Amino acid sequence: MRWAIRHRTAYRYASAVRDSFNEARVRPPSDGRQRLEHFDLTVNPPARVYCDTDFYGNWVDRFEVAGPHQALELESRAVVTTLAPGCLALDARPATLAEARQAGQCQPCFDFAQASRYTDTSPETGRMALEAAEGQTDAWQAALAIMRFVHGRMAYEPQATHVHTHAREALAAGRGVCQDFAHVMISLCRAAQIPARYVSGYLATQRVGGTHAWAEVFIPTAGWVAVDPTHNSQPDETYVKLAAGRDYDDVPPLRGAYRGTQERTMEVAVEISRAEE
Q: What is the model's pTM?
């Protein structure tokens, strides 16, 4: 499928601010599941944008607005073609949990096998992971069992949490949004010694779309495979990936620092539509 995506973020400040340094992760990558055909980024007040990659290989657009300003707007426009997933490497040789554990001890999986800011691998989480995996010894089947467990254990409830909610809090409350579902699943997978990482992106349909979060698990015989605990499914061609990291803290769409008032408002709008082939 071919998607046209417009993502706009606008900040309004109570008084003028200055020396604003920012980084955006809104440029979709091209990989085996999707192809970026066009990307344009506009900043207002106008600023020179520098693009590079971060430690995990995500595209990062960096810019600075030094002079006084009472508003900051960022708009990205992208055209992305997504591909239907293959039959997962379900066609590949099964990988044991022991193989997954070994992969987690090496790069590039090491960081995705450890606790992070919004996830944990505590003994309590480990016990829950054992319960969720139902005695599975195959890494992929264990990951699917954990996905089903998280989907059944938590209820999707907008505004029940915030961007800084830890997986423990969301799990204890039994509710949250896609970010929380992803953090809980990642915690349980890592506790079960399956490397897992957080993915930010968009979920598109022909009628509506918006930002979304899911997870990827590392299966030694298949590589990184996407799973969506919010919908209890494997992502298909309606998913557009932006970035991947240990948790949300690694991949916020926009992050920055500035001098001035802390009183501000933020508006985010995402429009996704089918693009002409």
A: 0.94
